[in-house]
């Protein structure tokens, strides 16, 4: 059977897991991995899709880890947000090297490093075909970059939030812990929330549900999966209203 090759979305919000940037390393950013992911993004941009990215920080620091080690939780969360800024800089650098034009916009003020998030400016960049990388999550502690993806996705009028992660969809339980877990092809936001499926936090699911913004969870490790998702192929799990 031939697969669809034409994008069915004009504008997408791609949430890239920080952990996925590690590749097979134990910490940080694996250069070959980030270059491969950027190659996948470049293929989608070349098809005419407007792409905004929210990058996670789990490969460097998570606030919850600092909090459980005794740190003030809000302080630890600000460290986590700064970790996403580092990932955003690395990602934009790799994008620019592969011929894309990337702009990093931060939700917290660090103007000497990257420009602040200003919605009309972000929309302008997208219309110009630039890739916008949203850094520092929502800018608030006690949130996650998944919620930032839902928030920015709604703000920019994305048609789909793509959660790119190390697993290939939403499972009945965490597949890293339960080998008997099975994958959903699709499920509703309410089902995801009532079953407490840990793939995304409830705040992100609730925001997308209220805005009728579907989420596709798929593997960024699988070559070509991003391109197949934007063309509407059967890939990953769709979470919908
Ligand atoms: N029901 C489930 N279905 C699929 N994955 C699940 C489920 N419950 C928990 N998970 C776990 O959720 C993880 C989500 O990964 P991801 O790395 O995207 O997390 P994140 O916290 O959003 O990212 P980051 O690394 O940027 O902090 C997967 O690695 C998977 O092990
Ligand atoms: O809006 C936000 C987004 C993130 N954080 C903190 O950053 C880290 C890394 O983000 P991940 O979503 O886990 O990749 C997160 O653990 C939080 O500590 C935040 O505070 N607010």
From TrEMBL:
UniProt-recorded Gene Ontology molecular function terms: ATP binding; UMP kinase activity
Subcellular location: Cytoplasm
Residue ranges annotated for the Aspartate/glutamate/uridylate kinase domain, each copy included: 10-219
InterPro entries the record matches: AceGlu_kinase-like_sf, Asp/Glu/Uridylate_kinase, Uridylate_kinase, Uridylate_kinase_bac
UniProt KW Kinase keyword: yes
GO biological process: one example: 'de novo' CTP biosynthetic process
Organism: Comamonas serinivorans
Family the UniProt entry places it in: Belongs to the UMP kinase family.
Protein name, as recorded: Uridylate kinase
Subunit structure: Homohexamer.
Annotated binding of ATP, by residue: 15-18, 58, 62, 165, 171, 174
Annotated control of activity: Inhibited by UTP.
């Amino acid at each position: 059977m031939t697969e669809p090759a034409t994008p069915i979305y004009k504008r997408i919000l791609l949430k890239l897991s920080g952990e996925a940037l590690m590749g097979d390393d134990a910490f940080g950013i694996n250069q070959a991995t980030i270059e491969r992911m950027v190659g996948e993004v470049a293929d989608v941009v070349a098809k005419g899709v407007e792409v905004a990215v929210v990058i996670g920080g789990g490969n460097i620091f998570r606030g919850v880890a600092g909090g459980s080690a005794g740190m003030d939780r809000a302080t630890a969360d600000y460290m986590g947000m700064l970790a996403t800024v580092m990932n955003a800089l690395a990602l934009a650098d790799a994008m620019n090297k592969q011929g894309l034009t990337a702009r990093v916009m931060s939700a917290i003020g660090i103007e000497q490093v990257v420009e602040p998030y200003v919605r009309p400016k972000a929309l302008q960049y997208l219309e110009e075909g630039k890739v916008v990388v949203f850094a520092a999550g929502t800018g608030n502690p006690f949130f996650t970059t998944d919620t930032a993806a839902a928030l920015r996705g709604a703000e920019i009028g994305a048609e789909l939030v793509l959660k790119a992660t190390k697993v290939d969809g939403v499972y009945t339980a965490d597949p890293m812990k339960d080998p008997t877990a099975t994958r959903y092809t699709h499920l509703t936001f309410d089902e995801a929330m009532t079953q407490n499926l840990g793939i995304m936090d409830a705040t992100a699911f609730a925001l997308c549900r209220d805005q009728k913004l579907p989420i596709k969870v798929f593997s960024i490790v699988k070559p070509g999966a991003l391109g197949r998702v934007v063309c509407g192929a059967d890939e990953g799990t769709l979470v919908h209203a």
